[in-house]
Amino acid sequence: MTKKITSIAIIGLVILQLITISKVSNLEMKIQNVQSQLNSERNDLRNEMSSISSRIKNELEQQSSILDSFEYEIGMLDEETLSAPVTFRVVPKQKSQGMIAELYYGDRTVEMQAQGAGFTTTFDIGLFEEEDCRINLSAAGTDNLESLDFEPREIRRKYLPTFYAFYHDFGQGIYEDGVYQTEGFVDINIKPDGIHGITIESVELIATLDGNVISRIEPSLEKESTEQAISSEEQSFLPAFHIDQSFKMDPSQRLRFILVGQDSLGLVHSIVLQDVRIDSSNNNDVIYEEAITDNWEIITDAQGNVLSGPEDYVLVQ
Length: 317
Prior knowledge:
This protein is of the alpha+beta class and 317 residues long. It has helices at residues 2-64, 153-159, 223-228; strands spanning 67-74, 83-92, 100-105, 108-111, 113-115, 118-126, 133-139, 142-147, 162-169, 174-176, 179-191, 200-209, 212-217, 230-231, 236-248, 255-263, 268-279, 285-288, 297-300, 306-308. The strands form 4 sheets. Strands 12, 13, 16, 17, 18, 19 and 20 form a 7-stranded antiparallel sheet that branches. Strands 9, 10, 11, 14 and 15 form a 5-stranded antiparallel sheet that branches.
């Protein structure tokens, strides 16, 4: 009898514990839901405050501006000079008799022509020019200067192809007995400019040791990648390069994998995929320089002159 009562008591306790666990689990779920809701509301509030702040800032800038409106239009690219005409139009808040408008672009001064309630001018800007742009409205001997929200890189974004690549290595590279070994795939994304059809026409992967080319790697098209390749007018994911390479190098040397693409304008686009050095003071650990994490695209002309990107970053000696 006593054993039966004990068994019943144990069963009761087990059931009670299961009920308690279930209630605790339900409570935890409710708490998580409440936390998720609070986080969502907090994010919504943060976004709303950011939007309000941005609107207030824009309104204050508009109120303090000497211009009622400003706009620009980028014309067609001249593939010989690598420049495009840009038309600027400004409308002052107050246009007085005899007012003169001048546009300053870098060290250039361009007089604007009166047109209706405002002023306009057109001049050529090179693909790789990056200068500040300002307007000066002069009336009755008084100059009124203001910076214009013009980003010269818009010309480059409009006419140059997008070239992006990433190296997926199969784990950390290995350095043993004076040899660095790495294996992985290089995924490539190319997007033509969409206007002139300017795109990357050829691609190769080179390896450099202290800036000297030691290997030119032809693409090995893997079947799996080929099946997944996507091509369209908007963008193209090329079949991946498969890399399985070993290089002799001293710890004092610098090894780089650089993806090089040449576009239909003759410009050379380079992306440093791996920038490797060996830490001889710490068990010959492989160190990857952080500069490549920004997916730097360095653009040069056919002679190797840097047109865009860090000029002090030596690709090839």
